[in-house]
Write a structure and sequence with these properties.
Shape of chain B: globular
Order of helices and strands of chain B: HEEEHEHEHEEH
Largest interface: A-B, 68 and 70 residues
Low-confidence stretches of chain B: 157-165
Shape of chain A: globular
Bound molecules: adenosine-5'-triphosphate, magnesium ion
Structural class of chain A: alpha+beta
Largest sheet of chain B: 3 strands, antiparallel
Strand content of chain B: 15-25%
Helix content of chain B: 40-55%
Oligomer: heterotetramer
Low-confidence stretches of chain A: none
Strand order of the largest sheet of chain B: 1-2-3
Radius of gyration of chain A: 17 Å
Distance between the termini of chain A: 24 Å
Mean pLDDT of chain B: 89
Structural class of chain B: alpha+beta
Distance between the termini of chain B: 62 Å
Strand content of chain A: 25-35%
Number of helices of chain A: 4
Number of strands of chain A: 8
């Protein structure tokens, strides 16, 4: 088992602190249109260092912070933490559990943490690469993007393989 | 390097054939380099032959057939180059009931090595999930998460608990 | 002419509000000219507020919410400027069960003036059809059409016929 | 009731002569992936004079002619006829029933017929315009195109209204 849990607070529609436990095997997520399912997928991409705002359906950094609703004020910060199970040692760190945290403020600043200590984005990307789940675009397939895997022209399809190679 | 790329390509191509057969329940798929002389820049072409039909390019397929081919390719890459986890957001939206079942069968076969998170509206897909979460939206535009089904090893605890209640 | 364009725009805008309310079960939508001074070239902006949420641009909506807004706009245009027939190919693919029901209710309300042909995988949508056809694919790649449900006025004949059989 | 029936022969997967009766109200079409449902939608666009090959998922004229399958030879011609009910006189012709027929040959030639007599494409387009169902893009919404209605930039949305005006 690799992911243990995902914790969100102030990220898009997850204004309240929310914890998603991720057991091994297949975890299903269901719910009505607009309830926040794809926001969970954005949170997973984001906490792992996603730099393209377009990939998380945003135009500016603050778009990920809960923007308020009927009778509820906007928040000032978004935070997502992912907890990885490292008992098998697939991540080259001396911990049996590794957490990665990302925060964003209305100022546009981002902060990153690994096991609670402040790090730079470069450290998160480096950790991912050393653990073998680098920039792989096939670990999160967003809504409506299934066709994108195929519809590229033959030269573009190559990029998918170079990542995997 | 060239050799690595070719090795990955060969492995993915043969896994692609295998998953295409599982997902379509027959037929065949061909994946080849458009320009094998110059491996560094060659594109990748795909021809598919659903059962009973002729071999054709991807653009001639139906919406659901394209989603199935994309699924088979994704599973082939995951099988050739496993990643620790994979999130799929409504990749089953265009599929009919029989195809969803075969798609889920292929997914389940990879769930030993890769942890899956699957967002879906489809009952068949919900049925194969080990754990299931429901996301709902409150009056204030805030998402709430509810556990609908616990994973097997936790289930006996809660089932016991509710039996004693 | 300018006057015609403005008249159509006003009618569609108010029908859009109406259908948005039916399909979302509340909330509101605003449609306005980006440059009312030059009607001949002005673009058209749309802001939507699903129930309980804030007013936002279309790009912030979820996949299903976008399909619902597109449906409401389509129905508004059909209501303002009826056409004799309209074919919809899997426009309900991204919708959850509650939204499909409301979508179908809106569709049915227009079926007096416009004849609809609806391609779907969705049980709720099949249920509102007056006549239903099934398309199947033979071993030879040739489509076959079968009537699954006859329209009401024909049904009594065939029901009688099978009662006597 | 405006459309009475659609007859196809040799058009895409409809190699055998197939008749689709279209009663008033809502007609539903269901079936597995790749069975030929969207081909019916292409047939409706095509018989009404569609000139953009892309809109009917084709690259050349002959792509609409049944191209053969396992154990079945390709055909030489595709033909589609639509029968319109004119008892209300919405079409300015002295017939209570109007048929429009289109044929395509492997040579790339197209032929058009109204009530059995050979006409030019211009006559079909002219008939549509006089009967009020001109080039309206909202009478056939293809698979996956719901979003296209919305996702255009504001100045592109204008075109939808100009058609309706
Ligand atoms: N920063 C934010 N603050 C508040 N709400 C937000 C924010 N960002 C996005 N949203 C809201 O999130 C909603 C979209 O959620 P999401 O895309 O996760 O829905 P979904 O459950 O995937 O639905 P579907 O089944 O239709 O795909 C939109 O209504 C949007 O307004
Ligand atoms: N000229 C042709 N001759 C033979 N087969 C054709 C021709 N043109 C298209 N096809 C076949 O038609 C099939 C696609 O049919 P269509 O798009 O109508 O499916 P569908 O029922 O809409 O499926 P889905 O539910 O996946 O959208 C493809 O498998 C394609 O090979
Ligand atoms: Mg979604
Ligand atoms: Mg289709």
């Amino acid at each position: 088992m690799n992911l243990r849990k995902l914790e969100l607070s102030g990220f898009k529609t997850f204004a309240r602190r929310t914890e998603v436990l991720l057991p091994g095997g297949v975890t299903g997520i269901v719910g009505p249109n607009g309830s926040g399912k794809s926001n969970l997928s954005d949170a997973l991409r984001w906490v792992l260092g996603e730099q393209s705002l377009q990939h998380i359906r945003s135009k500016k950094t603050e778009d990920v912070i809960y923007a308020g609703g009927a009778n509820r004020a906007p928040l000032g910060m978004a935070e997502v933490t992912i907890t990885l199970d490292n008992t098998s040692g697939w991540i080259p760190l001396d911990f049996s559990e590794v957490t990665i945290t990302r925060r964003a403020y209305r100022s546009g600043d981002n902060e990153y943490f690994i096991n609670g200590s402040r790090v730079r984005l470069r450290d998160v990307i480096d950790l991912r690469n050393r653990a073998g789940f680098g920039q792989s675009s096939y670990s999160v397939i967003g809504q409506g993007l299934v066709d994108a895997v195929l519809s590229q022209r033959p030269e573009e399809r190559r990029a998918l393989f170079e990542e995997a190679a | 390097t060239k050799k690595q790329f070719l090795d990955t390509f060969e492995t993915v191509a043969s896994e692609f054939e295998r998953f295409f057969g599982i997902i379509f329940g027959g037929g065949q798929v061909q994946m080849f380099l458009t320009d094998p002389e110059s491996i560094n820049t060659s594109g990748i072409e795909i021809l598919a032959q659903p059962p009973g039909k002729r071999l054709q390019s991807l653009s001639a397929l139906s919406g659901g057939e394209r989603a199935l081919v994309a699924g088979a390719l994704l599973f082939a890459i995951l099988s050739a180059k496993p990643v620790p986890f994979c999130l799929l957001d409504e990749v089953d939206a265009a599929l009919d009931e029989a195809n969803v079942k075969r798609f889920c069968q292929a997914l389940k076969s990879l769930a030993q090595q890769t942890q899956f998170v699957v967002i879906t509206h489809n009952r068949e897909t919900m049925a194969i999930a080990d754990a299931l979460y429901g996301v709902s939206m409150g009056q204030d535009g805030v998402s709430k998460l509810v556990s609908l089904r616990l994973p097997r090893e936790d289930r006996s605890d809660s089932a016991e608990a509710s039996a004693q209640a």
